[in-house]
Amino acid sequence: MIDMQLQKYELKNCNSFELKDIFDCGQCFRWNEEEDKSYTGVFKGNVLNVKKVGEDVYFEGVCNDDIEKICREYFDLDTNYEEIKSRLSNIDEHLKKSVEYGKGIRILNQDLWETIISFIISANNNIPRIKVIIERMSAKYGNKIEYNGKEYFTFPTINELRKASVEDLRGFGMGFRDKRVHDTTEIFFNRVMSIEELQQEKDVDVLREKLMSLPGVGRKVADCVMLFSLKRYDVFPVDVWIRRVMNELYIKEEDESKVSKELLQNLAREKYGNLAGIAQQYLFYYRRSS
DNA sequence: ACCCAGGGTCGTC
DNA sequence: GACGACCCTGGG
């Protein structure tokens, strides 16, 4: 059992790090803004508050490991976003504008299991509702952590979520996604597939295929999982917003629904190369916010 | 009151 | 490959 203790860590003169951009760009569902404009979230069994003052970032939280180590990994602090942004900005004016708008975005390194389940829930759903469902699920099946006089709940592990019946899941407001979440959980519980084997798989196509064999995981969810929890910055998840913005910027088809996913993926690979996933995030955030 | 959309996926034709 | 259904909730 690991000691849970309050820890602090600060980062001076941090560039490419804006709380709003990171937490509201659509990659995560469990971070909420506080009255003082800081954000508090739960991830990988930790509760963390992040505050930015000037160019300095202050982390404080109840952590199950060294807070600096946790933050370096989760916030992708060893990746040079200044360089990524400059490479993307040079591609064209559209990307330049998107990068300027979302200049503080970082792709979080999220928990693989949590990301799989969260994005199964995201299918044909909206973000506020996705967040509510995940909170209810965590409150019922996760572990309680107290921080700053409030109660927080970790995202349920495979073994914890396994206790939920399809009806229990439906009760959280999941709708038709209940069976998908339940059946995917069973697959991991019975070790038909394992988190470790997914983490170790190097071939992006094999990995995608494995993910897509899970109930509720199609191409888009698989790509989000790879981008948001496996550092596959080269994959390009195509959703309604990306289809919309790509069509507006490059294709200009009258009926955007007629633009095929394949065309968009090829276009993204040509234009953005191995940074397509990060480009997707800037474009998504820019288009959805304006 | 009714219709439509929301970070899609699945079964069917 | 295209097409419609799908839980549910909020907004027009």
Query: Helicity, in percent?
Result: 40-55%
Second rung of CATH, namely the architecture of the largest domain? Orthogonal Bundle
At the first level of CATH, what is the class of the largest domain? Answer: Mainly Alpha
User: Number of helical segments?
Assistant: 15
Q: Write the CATH fold name of the largest domain.
A: Endonuclease III, domain 1
Taking the sheet with the most strands, its summary is: 5 strands, antiparallel
Q: Note poorly predicted spans.
A: none
Give the helices and strands as they follow along the chain.
EHEEEEHHHHHEEHHHHHHHHH
For the largest sheet, list the strands in their spatial order.
1-5-4-3-2
SS content category = alpha+beta
As for the number of domains, it is 3
Q: Please, what is the average pLDDT?
A: 96
The 3D shape can be described as globular
CA radius of gyration is 19 Å
Measured by DSSP, the beta-strand proportion falls in: 5-15%
For the record, what is the CATH homologous superfamily label of the largest domain? Hypothetical protein, domain 2
Distance between the termini: 46 Å
Based on DSSP secondary structure assignment, what is the total number of beta strands? 7
Structure, explained:
With 290 residues, this protein is of the alpha+beta class. It folds into 3 domains: 5-78, TATA-Binding Protein, CATH 3.30.310; 82-106 and 234-290, Orthogonal Bundle (Endonuclease Iii, domain 2); 112-229, Hypothetical protein, domain 2 (Endonuclease III, domain 1). Helix content is 49%, strand content 13%. It has 15 helices and 7 strands. It has helices at residues 19-24, 67-74, 81-89, 93-101, 112-121, 127-141, 158-161, 166-171, 178-189, 195-200, 204-212, 219-229, 240-251, 261-272, 276-289; strands at residues 5-11, 31-33, 39-43, 46-53, 56-63, 144-147, 150-153. A 5-stranded antiparallel beta sheet has the order 1-5-4-3-2. Strands 6-7 form a two-stranded antiparallel sheet. The structure holds a DNA duplex (13 and 12 nucleotides).
